[in-house]
From TrEMBL:
InterPro entries: GH, GH79_Enzymes, GlcAase_C, Glyco_hydro_b
Signal sequence range: 1-18
A GO MF label: hydrolase activity
Entry keyword set: Hydrolase, Membrane, Signal, Transmembrane, Transmembrane helix
Gene3D superfamilies recorded: Glycosidases, Golgi alpha-mannosidase II
Pfam family, one: Glyco_hydro_79C
UniProt-recorded name of the protein: Glycoside hydrolase family 79 protein
Segments traversing the membrane: 636-658
Amino acid sequence: MLIAALALLGSAFTTARAVTVYGQIPLAQTIGANPSAGSAVPPTKTLAAYDKTVLNPPALPSPPPAAAYTLSLQKDAGAVNGLSIPHVGGSFWGFSVEMSVISQVLGKNSSLIQVPFLNLMANLQERAGSVVIRLGGNTQEFAAMVPSLPNGHTFAKADSGSTQTTKTPAVLYTVDMFYMAANISSMVNVGWFFGIPFNDSTNWRLTIAEQAQAIVGGHLLGLQAGNEPDFYQQFGRRVTYSPQMYTDEVQSLINTMNQNPLILNKNMLIGPSVATSGTWTPEQVWDTGFIDRFKDNLYALSVEHYPNNNCAAQFNTGQPIEVPQDVFPSYLTHTAAVNLVQPYIHSTDLAQAAGKPFIMFETNTASCGGFPGISDTYGAALWAIDYGFQMAYANFTHGLLHIGGQNVYYNPFTSPPTNQSSYNEWTAGAIYYSTIVVAEALGKTNTSRIIDLWGNAGSVYTPSYAIYENNVLSKVALFNFMDDKSGASNSQVTITVPAGAPSTVKVKYLSADTVSTKENIMWAGQTLGNQYTVDGRFRGSLNVTTINCDTTANTCVVPVNAPGFALVFFDTNAEPLSIGQATETFATTARTKFHNTVTFDPAALSTSNGHSGMSKDGFGSTSVGSISKATRRMTVSGVGVMLGSAILGGVWIVRGLLR
Ligand SMILES: *[C@@H]1O[C@H](CO)[C@@H](O)[C@H](O)[C@H]1NC(C)=O
Ligand SMILES: *[C@@H]1O[C@H](CO)[C@@H](O)[C@H](O)[C@H]1NC(C)=O
Ligand SMILES: *[C@@H]1O[C@H](CO)[C@@H](O)[C@H](O)[C@H]1NC(C)=O
Ligand SMILES: *[C@@H]1O[C@H](CO)[C@@H](O)[C@H](O)[C@H]1NC(C)=O
Ligand SMILES: *[C@@H]1O[C@H](CO)[C@@H](O)[C@H](O)[C@H]1NC(C)=O
Ligand SMILES: *[C@@H]1O[C@H](CO)[C@@H](O)[C@H](O)[C@H]1NC(C)=O
Ligand SMILES: *[C@@H]1O[C@H](CO)[C@@H](O)[C@H](O)[C@H]1NC(C)=O
């Protein structure tokens, strides 16, 4: 979203919305002249993505919830009322990448793809089987494909001075954007969403649909028809606009697509993507007959929503500035997730009746960049796990966490602030861990069903969920949102399973010292590293806690720190229990900025967790320029990605990989 439009909005500007800080975000790092090329040291002015603000944890609730409480659970799903429908599963949380920052996140072009990004996706794929990514956002409306751009660039910006929203730079891209997506999907199982521009509904620009279908092929999942249309009038993109007018425009789009022989699949649209913070509710769109009318043309129904916005501080809108310290507590209770999801329960019912997925197409902690001291903390990670589970419980199919580049606080991951993007100098946002946790919790079987347990007398500080897979109790998720170093607020959760508790359960904890920290966040003892140290792989030894249960009383007692999160596995052979990441054996040596070398012990490859299917020969090491043909035989994994890659000038070159 754009500064110019914001200035126009003035006092009408009161709601949360999806905003990318245009003009402040380096469109493509490769274009922003950064004289310190080759150095990923923090820039002099700290960009939001690397902000160091640390807030005080919220005060403890008074009276406090009980420290010890019992959850009484059924073993068989058949005995449980209110379970969600089975989900696609672990790919629940995906990502939404603002078009203007694709080159920061995915890479410069189809032959220079960021390896940390691939590693981060590989972690998720290992747990979930696949990952979904949307390339779009506000910038999709004016984006345009051009025949070529200078210097091998796939992305650039141009002033769209001729448009109504004057100061909006249009994202320019070449056909290579689709090859990038296709190349990424050939290495990690990513399914893509693109957006059809809605800036001009008379002369539809459908190149993106034609090219995405032709090039991305089966990895293209859907095409968004309109992004937050409930803001089009307010943002000056339409003079007047109503849900009926939107529906009529979708009809016009479908008519145009039907006449276009280059668009082979006319039935993969996604809508209405209303922000719900604006003037429209989803119901107002449903009331136009949207679902019945377009059922055959739709891949999924969608909404977009952020719980709050930081627009006043980011853009001097004149509205009262939200003080992060005051807002922080609102993220650290179960009420946050419940309130975010409640307005959509009727809509997810309608989607279910129509047999369509329902997707939260863009979300995060707050629009206009998020909040310093909140959006990138362990507290936000707890919030995003609860929010993801709550959506899954309410029969959403996916949620997509927005990535806005280096000028926002909320990214799940961010590349270094130079165009040399060394692979081990990325920053992982705390909410990336949430995507990993939800991926493990919902898993790969396509049978996961989840229920909010409302345990501990319904305390909003200690929410809990049960997950059933193949119709049996498979996992329990336990939260403790309180921050209390004394230990007095730690939970002791007794899980009783009258039909018979197992002799042991295994627990993976997501831990950190405090809700306000951005550092040393650990999932089962492993971390991606702190700011500027991330290469997308987990480090440290996997630490899964075994808890002995009382098989006479049929109880298992699980401790959860304040703050803390525990994922309790009832099947002690469950696959995620052995998934960590390559540890020291995959040490990476950055020798110089321009000549990085990856070394690893081939013996470790065949024995390491989660990397089965690796062939044993020929993977001793890679060095610059060496691409082993043998890599073609590997299954896709984070290691595979590393193996088939070579670094040149700090940027990984990926080619000839896999399949
Ligand atoms: C990095 O940016 C500088 C300055 O704009 C440019 O000269 C250089 O070619 C860029 N390097 C890469 C790998 O894109
Ligand atoms: C829509 O966007 C395209 C690409 O930026 C631009 O060329 C065109 O003039 C815009 N049309 C309108 C009506 O704003
Ligand atoms: C990607 O950029 C590099 C460096 O500018 C260039 O050598 C290469 O040809 C480009 N690849 C594509 C597919 O454009
Ligand atoms: C990536 O895309 C380019 C087209 O730009 C293609 O030539 C190349 O073979 C692709 N690489 C992989 C690994 O798919
Ligand atoms: C999800 O769908 C199931 C099956 O239709 C239904 O029983 C359940 O109530 C729904 N969940 C919510 C929160 O509406
Ligand atoms: C789960 O669904 C996906 C997508 O439809 C499919 O590719 C995968 O094979 C399914 N997994 C299982 C275990 O059935
Ligand atoms: C493993 O995790 C448990 C539970 O958080 C902790 O008590 C223990 O110290 C950890 N062990 C190691 C070796 O880090």
